[in-house]
């Protein structure tokens, strides 16, 4: 078998942590001799790294599998489909039973076996599910992350932990990924130096809860110390923290963010709700009072901070009074960015069969109300930035070919709006480089700026 003649395409669905896992598998496969191609229509083998967090993610994964299956031989070029990731970890037998188009299933415990899996498919010419039988534990590929095939432009994700210590009533992540496991600090720093050596200017720290970093390994929260050491890597311009929990955003961490120039004045803190009664039912440790206190502390210490959050509507038992309480608090807290989820019951979680499930039409109406309220808040937040000059990392060129598309410290990739940059200089801007940009106009959620 000539492995170099076999094209493999990887599709990563879901969160940044999934993307890092797919990048690790890509490096393993290319190191094993296979050829990696970006477009699955050019591939013989398609690896789909799935998310299984909520119902919409499962639907996306299944639809992607079926879309790829439309290109299987003899009509198309795809010979084998391999499903990996959270959906595969959680439902291997269901995939085997209900999606006969899939040829192999690898859960998150078996990312490291991707090469063996595809070798087996080509040696037997038969569908194989042998490697789906063990679906316990975490992926075990963290030692490969400093040699992964990074697929992003200008920035790279840096995973600092796996799994989750929390046991929120609605969340299946601990069932899929296990409890929180911190990566050793020296391993993270080695990967960061490798990322820097490849020319990346921004790293984004990610985990299910980055503020829990170190609790298991070092018996204390070690994110502030990790930030100090990462900032010593000279070529990094920006270090961004994603997915912290409010109880872990303490004064020590906020002080480090405020005083280390390279650390972005940006925090993503999912709060999930604004009603104490629903927060308690969700098994969250936050209260509205704690959220209020922490937001004040953060903004007092970092006046130009941008704060993003995530909330959920339609949790079982959520009354109009609970929802109104969240809306009033969102108006008071004024998050610069916000994402909203509609509750979906997940098997194996305490909320799956709770009483007082909220009807779908009410969930949808509340979802739309949250975004209507947030749009006004976000627009007001964006307008406060007009006239300021910021460093903007150029990610791409807009479809119209006129503007460049980039991000400042205030915009995280994928989740946030972008900055459209008009180039006033007499030279072309370079993708992956940063430029001084004056912000001049707000349109919906997006901002337009001009190079200075």
> Rg from C-alpha positions?
22 Å
CATH homologous superfamily of the largest domain - what is it? tm_1862 like domain
Can you tell me the CATH topology of the largest domain? pyruvate-formate lyase- activating enzyme
Report the structural category.
alpha/beta
Describe the protein.
The protein has 452 residues and is an alpha/beta fold. The chain has three domains: 3-132, Methylthiotransferase, N-terminal domain (Rossmann fold, 3-Layer(aba) Sandwich); 142-383, pyruvate-formate lyase- activating enzyme; 389-451, OB fold (Dihydrolipoamide Acetyltransferase, E2P). It has 14 helices and 18 strands. The strands form five sheets. Strands 2-1-3-4-5 form a five-stranded parallel β-sheet, with helices on both faces. Strands 14-15-16-18-17 form a five-stranded mixed beta barrel. A hairpin with a 6-residue loop joins strand 14 (389-397) and strand 15. The radius of gyration is 22 Å and the shape is globular.
Can I get a quick summary?
It is built from 14 helices and 18 strands.
Characteristic terms for this protein:
OB fold (Dihydrolipoamide Acetyltransferase, E2P), pyruvate-formate lyase- activating enzyme, Rossmann fold, 5-stranded mixed barrel, 452 residues, 14 helices, alpha/beta, 3 domains
What topology emerges from the helices and strands here?
Layout: E1 7-12, H1 16-31, E2 35-36, E3 45-50, H2 55-69, E4 80-85, H3 86-90, H4 92-98, E5 104-106, H5 114-124, E6 155-159, E7 161-162, H6 173-177, E8 181-182, H7 185-197, E9 202-206, H8 215-218, H9 223-231, E10 238-241, H10 251-259, E11 266-268, H11 276-281, H12 288-301, E12 306-313, H13 320-333, E13 337-342, H14 360-383, E14 389-397, E15 404-407, E16 419-422, E17 434-443, E18 446-451
Parallel strand pairs: 1-2, 1-3, 3-4, 4-5, 6-9, 9-10, 11-12, 12-13, 16-18
Antiparallel strand pairs: 7-8, 14-15, 14-17, 15-16, 17-18
């Amino acid at each position: 078998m000539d492995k170099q003649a076999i094209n493999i395409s990887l599709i990563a669905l879901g969160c940044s942590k999934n993307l890092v896992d797919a990048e690790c598998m890509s490096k393993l496969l290319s190191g094993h001799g296979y050829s990696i191609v970006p477009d699955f229509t050019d591939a013989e083998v398609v690896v789909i790294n799935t998310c299984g967090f909520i119902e919409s993610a499962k639907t996306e994964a299944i639809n992607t599998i079926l879309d790829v299956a439309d290109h299987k031989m003899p009509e198309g070029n795809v010979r084998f489909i391999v499903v990996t990731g959270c959906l595969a970890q959680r439902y291997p037998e269901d995939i085997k039973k209900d999606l006969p188009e899939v040829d192999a299933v690898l859960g998150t415990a078996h990312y490291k076996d991707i090469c063996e899996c595809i070798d087996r498919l080509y040696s037997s010419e038969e569908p194989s599910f042998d490697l789906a039988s063990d679906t316990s534990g975490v992926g075990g590929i963290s030692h490969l992350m400093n040699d992964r095939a990074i697929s992003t432009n200008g920035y790279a994700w840096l995973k600092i932990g796996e799994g989750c210590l929390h046991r929120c009533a609605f969340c299946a992540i601990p069932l899929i990924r296990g409890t929180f496991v911190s990566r050793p600090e020296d391993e993270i720093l080695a990967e960061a130096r490798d990322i820097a050596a490849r020319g990346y200017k921004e790293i984004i720290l990610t985990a299910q809860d980055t503020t829990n970093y170190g609790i298991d390994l070092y018996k204390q929260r070690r994110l502030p110390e990790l930030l100090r050491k990462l900032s010593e890597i000279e070529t990094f311009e920006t270090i961004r923290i994603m997915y912290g929990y409010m109880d872990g955003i303490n004064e020590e961490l906020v002080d480090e963010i405020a005083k280390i120039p390279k650390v972005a004045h940006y925090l993503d803190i999912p709060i999930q709700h604004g009603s104490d009664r629903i927060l308690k039912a969700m098994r969250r440790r936050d209260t509205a009072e704690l959220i209020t206190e922490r937001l004040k502390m953060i903004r007092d210490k970092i006046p130009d901070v941008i704060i993003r959050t995530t909330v959920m509507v339609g949790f079982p038992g959520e009354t109009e009074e609970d929802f109104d309480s969240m809306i009033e608090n969102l108006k008071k807290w004024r998050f610069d960015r916000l994402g909203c989820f509609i509750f979906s019951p997940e098997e194996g979680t305490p909320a799956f069969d709770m009483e007082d499930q909220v009807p779908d039409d009410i969930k949808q109406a509340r979802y739309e109300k949250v975004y209507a309220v947030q749009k006004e808040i976000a627009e007001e937040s964006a307008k406060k930035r007009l006239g300021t000059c910021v460093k903007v990392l150029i990610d791409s060129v807009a479809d119209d070919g006129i503007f460049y598309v980039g991000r400042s410290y205030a915009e995280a990739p994928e989740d946030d709006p972008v900055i459209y940059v008009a180039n006033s200089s007499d030279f072309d801007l370079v993708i992956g480089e940063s430029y001084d940009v004056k912000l001049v106009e707000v349109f919906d959620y997006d901002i337009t700026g001009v190079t200075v």
